[in-house]
Amino acid sequence: MFYELPTPATSAAQSLVSCIKERRSVRNYSEAAISLAALSQVLWAIQGKTGEGSERATPSAGGLYPLHIHVLVRRVSELKHGVYEYEWNTHSLKLLDDKSPEGNLTGVGIGEQPWLEESAVVIALGANFDGPVKYFESQLPRGERGVRYVFMESGAAAQNAHLQATALGLGFVLVAGFDDAKAKNAFQFAPGFEPTALFCIGQRDD
What is the rounded distance in angstroms from the CA atom of residue 128 to the CA atom of residue 119? Predict the structure, then answer.
């Protein structure tokens, strides 16, 4: 089942400079839902289409775009809870599993990270490293350069998402400390894909 997302805005009144200045990691979230339009905007900022071809919102070494985006939805208006995959070319969400997400991320974080269970949404980036590793195998250090590029792309996506969340008045925190196997299972990545980063997003509880 696919869910079409609202058309993302491509202009905004708030400046990039102010978003950079105001950006903070937020780990306390209220129980309020975020809007479907806000989720749409963040997903577009991560890897939305920005040109006539395959150009997307974040840069990708070799134009390979190995990242896949999965979303665990708890509290989003007009969208039922579950695990989804973001389809960048159609700007839509594909439902992978509609079971309750409560408790799905228990034990995924390394150490105490309650925001993984308290945020309205958790976005997971995942990638199949085989393609980038092979594509850049001639670059030293052999077998490692492609992996580095994937994590660089994940970092660019994280910054885009964080600045976009800031512009929307939402809380955001990047989670890099997680159990890979548990995260892969929770977000239902296909065999061959490994998670690279998790983003917690929700209404701030200041």
Answer: 27
Helical packing angle, 36-47 and 145-167, nearest 10°: 150
Whole-structure pTM value: 0.96
pLDDT at 99: 80
Q: Using CA atoms, how far apart are residues 136 and 125, in angstroms rounded to an integer?
A: 21
- Phi/psi of residue 149, nearest 5 degrees: -65, -35
Give per-residue pLDDT as tens, 7-62: 999 887 789 999 999 999 999 999 999 999 999 999 999 999 999 888 999 999 99
What's 2-7+14-202's CATH class?
A: alpha beta
In the chain, where the domains are located? 2-7+14-202
Q: Among 10, 75, 6, which Cα is nearest to 37's?
A: 6
